[in-house]
Amino acid sequence: SFDAHPRKESQVRQLAWVGEGVWVSIRLDSTLRLYHAHTYQHLQDVDIEPYVSKMLGTGKLGFSFVRITALMVSCNRLWVGTGNGVIISIPLTETNKTSGAPGNRPGSVIRVYGDENSDKVTPGTFIPYCSMAHAQLCFHGHRDAVKFFVAVPGQVVSPQSGSSGTDLTGDKAGPSAQEPGSQTPLKSMLVISGGEGYIDFRMGDEGGESELLGEDLPLEPSVAKAERSHLIVWQVMYGSE
């Protein structure tokens, strides 16, 4: 065992593991902490509060502070859900961009090997540093805290066959399932977030609720639209390498 936070009263809330790194979130805290899975060395701190405030502005967040309520690694990205309903997708890289010194990580050479049966790399070959310079904040979020993330395999459907609605198998990676000018077949992953309510942070509460969401659901009239649980789904395309 080891101390994941200097404050003794703090509590570990979520863990997300890939390669030789474990990301740890602390209850009522906006900072993620990366530890080496074998040596327990503290490798990186990432505070998402300044990033969320810069993207959305403090007016959209109200008086509530940013805290991390959901965490998951998928498609070589760290998916972070907050108590404000904001969702951030952060690419993982084997180099610590913040310090610019690869010598801070254990070992001198780290090689990454892909697994054809999953989106994870082979354990023991990869330190999952967060690349905040390429982090993406989704303007589609929840009105309340993000409760969970789930990732399931999807299907790669070509635009031609998808428009006709006849060929939805996606069993074979033909030219339509490849990047232009590339022979690397693309894979699809569906990332799902769950939480209460839906909001478009670009529009706020006035127009944040889409007319297509929840209008025809057979729910009790007493359940207000803002209180209904929602699932938000993203399709993530990535190469097999």
TrEMBL record:
<keyword id="KW-0808">Transferase</keyword>
<keyword id="KW-0418">Kinase</keyword>
<feature type="region of interest" description="Disordered">
    <location>
        <begin position="158"/>
        <end position="186"/>
    </location>
</feature>
<dbReference type="GO" id="GO:0016301">
    <property type="term" value="F:kinase activity"/>
</dbReference>
<dbReference type="GO" id="GO:0005078">
    <property type="term" value="F:MAP-kinase scaffold activity"/>
</dbReference>
<dbReference type="InterPro" id="IPR039911">
    <property type="entry name" value="JIP3/JIP4"/>
</dbReference>
<protein>
    <submittedName>
        <fullName>C-jun-amino-terminal kinase-interacting protein 4-like protein</fullName>
    </submittedName>
</protein>
<dbReference type="Pfam" id="PF19056">
    <property type="entry name" value="WD40_2"/>
</dbReference>
